[in-house]
Amino acid sequence: MTDFTGNHILSVNQLDRDAIAKIFETANMMLPYAQRKKRTHVLDGAILGNMFFEASTRTRVSFGSAFNLLGGFVRETTGMSSSALAKGESLYDTARVLSSYADVIAMRHPQSGSVKEFSEGSMVPVINGGDGANEHPTQALLDLYTIEKELTASLQTIDKMHIAMVGDLKHGRTVHSLSKLLAQYKNITFSLISPKALAMPDEIVSVLENAGHKVIITDSIEGNVDADILYLTRIQEERFTSQEEADLYRGQFRLNQQIYTKHCKSNTVIMHPLPRDSRSDANELDTDLNLNPNLAIFRQVENGVLIRMALFALTLGVSDQVSKHESDVHWFSRK
Amino acid sequence: MTDFTGNHILSVNQLDRDAIAKIFETANMMLPYAQRKKRTHVLDGAILGNMFFEASTRTRVSFGSAFNLLGGFVRETTGMSSSALAKGESLYDTARVLSSYADVIAMRHPQSGSVKEFSEGSMVPVINGGDGANEHPTQALLDLYTIEKELTASLQTIDKMHIAMVGDLKHGRTVHSLSKLLAQYKNITFSLISPKALAMPDEIVSVLENAGHKVIITDSIEGNVDADILYLTRIQEERFTSQEEADLYRGQFRLNQQIYTKHCKSNTVIMHPLPRDSRSDANELDTDLNLNPNLAIFRQVENGVLIRMALFALTLGVSDQVSKHESDVHWFSRK
Amino acid sequence: MTDFTGNHILSVNQLDRDAIAKIFETANMMLPYAQRKKRTHVLDGAILGNMFFEASTRTRVSFGSAFNLLGGFVRETTGMSSSALAKGESLYDTARVLSSYADVIAMRHPQSGSVKEFSEGSMVPVINGGDGANEHPTQALLDLYTIEKELTASLQTIDKMHIAMVGDLKHGRTVHSLSKLLAQYKNITFSLISPKALAMPDEIVSVLENAGHKVIITDSIEGNVDADILYLTRIQEERFTSQEEADLYRGQFRLNQQIYTKHCKSNTVIMHPLPRDSRSDANELDTDLNLNPNLAIFRQVENGVLIRMALFALTLGVSDQVSKHESDVHWFSRK
Fold first, then answer.
1. Is there a contact between C200 and C166 (Cβ–Cβ < 8 Å)?
2. Assembly ipTM
3. What is the homologous superfamily of the domain C138-298 according to CATH?
4. Do A47 and B69 touch (CB under 8 A)?
5. In this structure, which of A19, A295, B185, C142 has its CB flanked by the most CB atoms within 10 Å?
6. Secondary structure class of C327 (helix, strand, coil)
7. pLDDT tens sequence across A31-41
8. Residue B315 at interface with chain C, using a CB cutoff of 8 Å
9. Is some CB atom of chain A closer than 8 A to the CB atom of B64?
10. Which of C77, C96, C321 sits opposite A61 (nearest CB)?
11. Residue range C81-139, pLDDT digits in tens
12. pTM attached to this predicted model
């Protein structure tokens, strides 16, 4: 699919390489507006229903700002208590009602499959902002987009790259969705590094292997993170099957500059879905990496805005009109 | 009253037939903007204070979207905990303060009479978005507007129609307010169908009878719902005076396609204030009615946006300038 | 400092008399827009991140409306539970992320020093909306601006005025910050009236005395409130060190029209940071003063909008472009 107009974005499974290319090309086009070199009024008067039935400040604000950057208004809700859902209303009804108030809806909900069910009642395009353990396609897209941009900067490609995924690969919907997208590329080496109890599900490993990628499964970062991309995720101690295993792995998947220097390439790109836990007993990604130019975590955030702008422009069918509605920015813009 | 400029909308008691006609005429004018055939910038730069001191996602978002559709900004609050009201501030002070931040205020509050008290301190028009058990005038107006539109489509009028109201007629502020508005019309037949313990208050029945309408009070839908309009409301079991009575009536006021076919006219319009409880043990309005073209519940929702747009345009005195500020919509609009 | 472009506003300590003069001059310029005589689109397309990690309806809405009055969009958050801060994210990371979504940030947070820490990670200007017991500079500025405007109206100046501050002078960050700003003026008489246990901290008294001002410390309003400005703050009974002391002072610092007539000058200006507690057992500032033309409490609120508009225009470097982007207001505007 390359014509997104009027369609829902519910799952990475919808997206083939042509679709991904179209989204990334549109995201590239959004850069001057996100950077405030220009602004665009292309969605001036349109309304985003930013329906977060589960709290998530950063994802909610990212969607909202992306829509504002296109000139549109945002109506929103946070949390479920105040919702008619709590009074036994079906997701179908909720969608029929809320889609009367908006031109497009971004929705997060704690229940797996809820966003798809909601989309069936909606009269406007629905973009999945995360439905429980199931999907978070805009995160997967912004991760993939970041990988492509970072590699392109060093004249590499996603095809043939080496990516190391580290941490809780069992529960992280982020790494699952990203892996599904990456499976469509060619000859990637995946180092899947996790405690044994938190390994990548077999189903995902099969998808990667069946697509011809090389998969290394290990529980040690030593010798495995000299990759082009190093994607870290959080391990929560309560995820382990026993305290013994938790003790065994404690601190084994943290990264700081010293470990980076010892085990990574000089230009290994460091990624993380954020938030990173910076408390002293967590410290999964040490702040001494903040000065490392290969730390891409905040570029991921910025890319998230571009991807969400692109999805709004595409689903509302205005991607070719963005620059027609542009004007100058005359206020101080970010450092 | 037909000049609403600068006035509060607090109660259906303010609204005579001339006022209602003016609101409906203005709501009609809003249709192309709500349907995204056009957009209007008439309130570009104006600010709605969407002050919901009691949570209500759909009503809050409906007011907010209506204001955005006229081009204005929305500032809002949800819930009471964060409010100075909780620190002993009077509604008068709260209104003085919040009306410094807005051009018009929509307010919901759990306490009966609170919105009127608030309006006395406000320097800008206040629209009642529901004050406890007391009033919810925009719901009554959107219900009446829906009735008029649905009947007009089949060449009928509110005068001389037959409306059946079903369910909890004792506590439902919706049916009380709607009845007061309908009382101003001529020769209506009201079938008031409820459990005995949840009957329409005598005060409302008197208003209807004194205005010359025919009122039938019954506890059975059989023989009483072959009406032009069938308005259902929810019965909550805890409202009954005894469990025996709850048991007696359980399931007697639900509607599905089979009951509709058996007891209603072929074009009886089905209305409900929503949300409807679609859980299997509630199922007050079965989803098998979703394909019935006479199910008007989602048209009520859409009409709510038109009514709220009309009230904003009227209270801010711009109803005759809406089309002067219009422009084209170039994005994908709803199915 | 008189060029605020790109700078944070974190503390009154940043502000010398030139800076204050620049802010007030800019605030004056905002009056026609706040009063809806005109509107301005100067920040059309800009985004405020209104990040309230502690609930505060009025301050949050005041910042948001001020930004809307300049034509900009507002994205916001209320409360901390939904925030990544709760998952161990550092304020630095939170700032890096949220500043990717906005052109300027207004932030409130319960923890002293948090806004400064946050500002160090932010790529856009941060305005302190209150950080715990520490600072609330926009409140201090709106108070000082109100004092100047009220005195100017009666041909007086801040230099040489007599101000009485009454109530809990120990814990009120409002009176501390205001005192620091006033210290920069000349020959002011300060009557600091409070229970002994709730007296102004020595540190602040020293600042005032070292700057050559006259300071009177007392626990009685009699003979001390015939001032030009009377600034009242709330006393919470639990602040006293003993119940005996609380009993001793109960009701001694309340103001009503009778006390005003007896103890104040005929044009003593009454100020209060609001909310005032209007419950019968509190009644710190009696509502019978509402008709007293010298009651400036609601003018403080309106001035707060002007000050916040000024700070946005200054930090975003558009203060000289506001009128270039103006247009007419054609809707009903406030009484």
1. no
2. 0.96
3. Aspartate/ornithine carbamoyltransferase (3.40.50.1370)
4. yes
5. C142
6. strand
7. 999 999 999 99
8. yes
9. yes
10. C77
11. 655 666 788 999 999 999 999 999 999 999 999 999 999 999 999 999 999 989 999 99
12. 0.96
